[in-house]
Design goal:
Oligomer: single chain
Strand content: under 5%
Structural class: mainly alpha
Radius of gyration: 18 Å
Largest sheet: none
Number of helices: 2
């Protein structure tokens, strides 16, 4: 992956807003599902993959 060069007179900086509790909970659910799927794919125990 290469670097992105800023064009003249264009600012590519962004500000991130803090996540709400609901957004954070949804993100954690998605990440847990991804880890479960990857653990099954690798044949690992879920407890080992999550922790």
């Amino acid at each position: 992956m290469g670097l992105i060069k800023e064009a003249k007179n264009i600012d590519l900086s962004t500000k991130s807003e803090p996540w709400t509790e609901e957004e954070l909970a949804n993100f954690r659910k998605v990440m847990k599902k991804i880890k479960e799927k990857n653990a099954k794919r690798k044949g690992l125990d879920l407890k080992k993959a999550v922790h």
